[in-house]
Amino acid sequence: MSNAVFTRVLEINEVASTSAEAKRLCKEVSGQNLAVWTRKQTQGRGQVGASWFTGDEKDIALSCVFYPGSFPVQKQFLLNMVVCNAVFNYVKSNVNKEVSIKWPNDILIGQKKVCGILIENVLRGAAIDHSVIGIGVNVNSKIFPGELAHATSIAIENFAFIGSQRSETLDLIDHLGKHLEEFYQPILNEVLIRENYLKHLFGLNKELSFLRGEQEFKGTITGVDDSGKLKMLVNGEEVLFGFKEIQFLYL
Ligand code: BTN
Predict the structure, then answer these.
(1) May I ask the CATH class of domain 9-199?
(2) Topology alike, domains 9-199 and 207-248
(3) Which of 8, 118, 130, 244 has the smallest C-beta neighbourhood within 10 Å, fewest atoms?
(4) Who wins on pLDDT, 186 or 194?
C-alpha cells in the first residue's frame, strides 16, 4: 500500500532503528520519498540520545524520508507542526479521550505520552533537502519498561480498540501523506497549520509548573514563534524557550 506522497513503503521484519535504516536507504535512491517500518525494532532512538521502546509486533516504529521541495530552513518548525497535526489526527481517530500535542512534538493522551517524534533535517545550503521523520506510537503494548512511568498506548486508553501493528502503521502513513502533501501545493497554508497545532497544544493559556535547570517556576504558554521556540508569560513578561531549555513538571 502507498499514497501520493509515500509511493515506496518498505516493511522490514527486524531492524535496529527504522530511522538509521531510512537514512541508509535514501542514500541508495536519493530524491524519492520513502516510508520504512518494522515489526521488531531492537535499538530505537529517541530525543537527545535516549533509547525508545517499541513492543515487538505491537507498536508502530516508522521512519519516513520526505523531500519537501527545497524548503527554507528557517521554516523548519512548520514541518514539525504538520507532522504533529497528522499524528494527532491519527491518534485522535482511535481514542475518545483528550489527546494533545506537547511542545515541541510529543503526543499525549491525558497526561501520558503515547507517541514520540524525532525529525532530522538534512540541509542543502539554506534549504531542507530532505527530512527523516521517525515516529514511534504505542499502539498495542500494555506493559512498558520501568522507567516509562508516563507512557500509555492506544489499547490502554481504548478498551474496544482492535488494530494490528501493520494496519495501524499503514493508516498512520496515510494520515502523514495527506498532511505532507500540502508542501507540494503552490501555497502552503501556514496560518492554518499553526492554528491546528496551537488548538491542540498541551497547556495553552494555562498556568503550569516548569523546571529550568534546578529552578522550578510557573508560566503560561501563549504560543510558539516562527523558529519553534515556546512563548510563555512568566511573571507578566513574555519569555522564549528553546527545546530542552525547560521541562514540564509533573509530566
Ligand atoms: C522521542 O524521544 O520522543 C522520539 C522517539 C522517536 C522514536 C521513533 S520509533 C521509529 C524511529 N526509529 C527510531 O530509532 N526512532 C524513531
Answers:
(1) alpha beta
(2) no
(3) 244
(4) 194
CA–CA distance, 122 with 129 (Å, rounded to integer): 6
Kindly indicate the confidence band of residue 220, based on its pLDDT and cuts at 50, 70 and 90: very high
Which uninterrupted H or E stretch holds 154? helix 154-157
Q: What residue spans define the domains of the chain? A: 9-199, 207-248
User: CA 97 to CA 107: how far, in whole Å?
Assistant: 13
Q: How far is the CA of 178 from the centre of ligand 1 (A)?
A: 21
Quick one: CATH architecture of 207-248?
Roll (2.30)
State residue 251's pLDDT score: 67
Edge-to-edge, what's the strand order for the sheet holding 207-212? 237-241, 230-234, 215-224, 207-212, 247-248
Task: Choose which residue among 135, 141, 176, 247 to substitute to test ligand 1 binding: the one with the highest number of ligand atoms within 8 A of its C-beta.
Answer: 135
The pLDDT assigned to 201 comes to 98
138 Cβ closer than 6 Å to some ligand 1 atom: no
- CA of 63 relative to ligand 1 center, distance in Å: 8
